[in-house]
User: What shape does this take?
Amino acid sequence: MPTLSEIASFLGIGTPALPHLEISGLAPLDEAGERDLSLVASEAYLPQLATTRAAAVILQRKLKVPPTWERPVLVADDVDLAIARLLPMFAPPVQRPASGIDASARIAPSATVGDAPSIGPNVVIGARSRLGARCAIHANVYIGDDVVIGDDCQLFPAVVVRERITLGNRVTIHASSVLGTDGFGYRWDGERHAKVPQIGTVIVEDDVEIGSCVCIDRAKFSATRIGRGAKIDNLVQVGHNARIGPHCIIVGQAGVAGSVRLGTGVILGGQCAVRDHVTVNDGAMVAACSGVAEDVQPKTIVSGIPALPHRQTLREQAALRRLPDLVVQVRKLQEAIDQLTKQK
Assistant: This one.
């Protein structure tokens, strides 16, 4: 078990009181035991210090513990980031398939696999596909023909990577996600919905992480592209020919329609939708459950349906809450006007 001194040194924080105290784990204040390290990231949690059993806490720098608190405190500029760095210290490593290639895997003779692979049971790797070094491919993954996968990638169980898809280095795809399904393209020909062939590809750049049950459609032509360092939550839909910029965050159940452009560092909240051919520019944020129908300017926060600048949406919502009272007032005014009209 690491000591407080070792934890402080790892985080680059000054030496705490009781430096040799051993820490067994991380826990929230209300669940922490006597050997746990906990955190206080906002003033709202300070009252819980009176009842927590935590051995020590990591405290946001702008906060102050009450005078009654006598246990060690580690002060951090960003508590959440500090905890994110510490979590691997206390967690067992993520399980990987056994080193080597499982006997039940089916790898086409023309496919190539890089050094030190970990390929699990019932994996299928198609013709002419190439895997980089140190890839972990879990059970029941399907990799189609002519796929290129970079170094140090990890594909969890039941992931499907269809033909002609390219993944960069250090890409993680969680269970049951599908890359390369046909884009949703149909055209009414007078009698039926005629399918528009989807002959393009999907390109996922380095350091991307894709959650479970995500669908990323192949392009009609050219490529659907996921930019370097982007993070995509569970149950997200990315339509054909979309371009997701570097370091974007897309939260669960969001939908990105075809030919959407997201700039660098865009954040899409949960269950929001971006209609086709819309551009959300660098650094913009879309609040949860919003519907984006027009381009969003850089570093703008939008919300609502249709999505508008967030302050405007808040003003409209405040006015809407007053509507019942306004209806009553208007009715009374109308009655008064009617009385005056009758008197004349």
Notes: The two ends are 91 Å apart (CA to CA). The longest helix spans residues 323-343.
